[in-house]
Design brief:
heterodimer, A: alpha+beta, 2 domains, four-stranded antiparallel beta sheet, 14 helices, 12 strands, B: alpha/beta, 32% helix
């Protein structure tokens, strides 16, 4: 066993501060990445988990998020069937409404603006997300039935089977969804028929974005290009993956969360470097006489530096393990509260690299202490 | 072997000044010094006399302001710093008052850690470390950490660490002052054995008068000057002293 590793294990309590600092720095970033990914997943869920292979949007829309009213001429729907590969077209309507709960005893009145989305609660409908349970689908068949995401229940002041109003019309919460959190307005999902009853279905010449199912999903990109070629600027067709990515980009660009992520990464780096380098410095200082003795016996300064860098490497590795444990804990916590979290491999690898860089950078910072290991001082 | 070739280290006109405030204190004043293989040379003197500074300049740890050190036939202070490190690695052993052992390492690891840098394979290093620790009577303490060893045992580990690389020059700075009389005696006998059996030049700084009995040569230093240089055994006899080797 090397000197560095033996020292780390034997004096693990001394190095614990550095390991914990690294772990929290990692957690700070990973937890935010996790929540952000979860939010993106939630925001793009309706697209990601829909049965549609293509989405038809107004020509200038850049994503489903914050891109304003997305209405298309109604005639486009039938027109799409001109392409022989199109199997089914359905409009994806929705709108905003004023929400009021019906507070029980000791409950707070909540009046807020909600986003109302719709699905067609028929088996295999193109607008019905793939992860809706059969019970949810049947619940939404009932007129004035609504589904709310678990994370929005408290925000909207309701629970299952409660009554509330949207634009003054009474609805009933008949289902609770998982994995559809919305960081802007809370959203409520109803059936197309209920949306009509609420007076929010697009009437006349306009419809919402169109969802298109193809006979062969593998041909999505080819059909997208065919449809776009004949659109004459009236619309733009997107594949599901393309739109999901655009939504994610819109979230990162337009929301303050991108700023949060960057600042927490910087903060994590500073905390990590600060505490880790202090700890390493202290640990080296505690062994400075022993290092000086090695110098006296002819071990070069370069070799001592290698020992310190190896030590930082092991501290970094221990920090990574601790980060994994902490992050898993936060993930479980989030899961129990219905907050979806996601950890894309790229982000995890980047954070792992960052932690290792922090640790090695701290080691480099504390190398200066070795200059104090002048063996002549031992002879004073 | 002629007496001249037995000279291990020779210094001429060593001068070292330290700056304190605005004034310079001359710690070594034109000191001439030599030590031979097979001898235990004691450097004695009160604190502040410059004895430790002398050892530091002789061993390549502290550059003198003036003067020359010829060690093992090389002009020590004309070498580049990296070569001086290498010189110490190849030829010098050190024993300090505080034992300076890594608390995380076992006795065996303390010794192999240094041997690793001399280019030995791990197996060779382990074998040689085991021999060195057995020579200082710690064959059954190989896997103990410093906290499990007594003060005397710790100093013996430090001696094994210094001796394992078979140095021709062994420097000891107050090696017994943290030890009781009995352990001090064991330590000085080990130093003597290094001189007699391994033919090293042992240079020992001390103000412990009990150690005088084990010296081949005693040099008194005071105020940066050598006051007195006395040989207690005839030079030609210094290679053997059977009654003490058996220690």
């Amino acid at each position: 066993m090397s000197l560095a590793l033996a020292t780390l294990i034997y004096e693990s309590r001394r190095y614990m501060a550095a390991v914990i600092a690294l772990a929290f720095a990692g957690l700070l970033i990973l937890a935010q990445v996790g929540m952000f990914t979860g939010i993106v997943k939630g925001a793009t869920a309706t697209v990601d988990r829909s049965r549609a292979d293509l989405m038809i949007m107004p020509a200038k829309s850049e994503s489903l998020i914050n891109s304003g009213p997305t209405s298309l001429p109604r005639r486009l729907g039938p027109q799409l069937y001109l392409n022989p590969e199109v199997a089914e077209v359905a409009s994806f309507d929705g709108g905003g409404g004023r929400w009021s709960n019906t507070p029980g005893k000791g409950q707070k009145q909540v009046t807020t603006f909600v986003q109302v989305n719709m699905v067609d609660p028929e088996v295999g409908a193109v607008t019905l997300p793939t992860d809706y349970s059969e019970a949810t689908r049947i619940a939404l068949l009932e007129p004035y039935a609504a589904a709310v995401d678990r994370t929005a229940l408290a925000r909207l002041g309701v629970k299952l089977n409660d009554t509330a109003t949207v634009n003054g019309k009474t609805i009933h919460i008949r289902a609770v969804l998982d994995g559809y959190p919305d960081m802007n307005n809370a959203s409520v999902t109803v059936s197309r028929d209920t949306l009509r009853l609420l007076g929010m279905l697009e009437k006349g010449e306009k419809t919402g974005p169109l969802m298109v199912r193809l006979k062969d999903p593998a041909r999505a990109e080819a059909v997208r290009d065919q449809l776009n070629a004949v659109s004459k600027g009236a619309y733009r067709a997107w594949t599901r993956a393309e739109l999901s990515k655009a939504n994610e980009g819109a979230l990162l660009k337009e929301q303050i969360i991108g700023l949060f992520l960057i600042s927490s990464a910087v903060l994590g780096f500073l905390i990590g470097v600060g505490i880790t380098s202090m700890t390493l410095r202290g640990a080296i200082l505690a062994n400075i006489k022993e290092f000086a003795t090695l110098r006296a016996l002819g071990v070069s300064m370069g070799s001592l530096r290698v020992i310190v860098l190896e030590l930082s490497f092991w501290v970094g590795l221990a920090g990574l393990l601790a980060t994994a444990v902490f992050t898993y804990g936060v993930y479980l916590l989030g899961k129990s509260g219905g907050v979806p979290m996601g950890f894309p491999p790229v982000a995890v690898i980047l954070v792992a690299l960052l932690l290792m860089v922090i640790s090695l950078a701290s080691g480099l910072f504390s190398l200066g202490v070795l200059k104090k290991s002048q063996p002549a001082d031992l002879l004073r | 072997m002629t007496p001249a070739s037995r000279v291990a280290i020779e210094a001429k006109g060593l001068t070292k000044r330290f700056k304190t405030g605005r004034t310079f204190i001359e710690v070594l004043k034109q000191v001439d010094f030599d030590a031979r293989h097979g001898d235990v040379t004691m450097v004695m003197g009160p604190s502040g006399s410059g004895k430790s500074t002398l050892v530091a300049t002789l061993s390549g740890l502290l550059r003198p302001d003036d003067g020359q050190v010829t060690a093992m036939g090389q002009d020590l202070w004309s070498l580049r710093p990296g070569r001086i490190d290498r010189f110490r690695l190849d030829h010098c052993g050190f024993i300090f008052q505080g034992f300076n052992l890594f608390s995380a390492l076992t006795a065996l690891q303390q010794v192999t850690t240094v041997l690793k840098y001399t280019g030995l394979s791990p197996a060779e290093a382990k074998e040689r470390a085991t021999i060195a620790l057995s020579e200082v009577g710690l064959a059954n303490r190989l896997h103990q950490r410093p906290t499990e060893l007594s003060g005397g045992e710790k100093q013996r580990v430090a001696i094994a660490r210094a001796l394992a690389k078979q140095p021709r020059l062994l420097f000891a700075d107050e090696p017994t002052s943290a030890l009781d009389g009995e352990n001090g005696q064991v330590v000085i006998q080990l130093l003597q054995r290094a001189a007699k059996q391994h033919d090293a030049a042992v240079i020992c700084v001390t103000h412990d008068p009990r150690l005088e009995a084990y010296a081949d040569r005693i040099i008194h230093i005071e105020d940066g000057r050598i006051l007195d240089d006395r040989r207690t055994t005839p030079a030609h006899e210094s290679a053997r002293q059977p009654e003490l080797i058996e220690a």
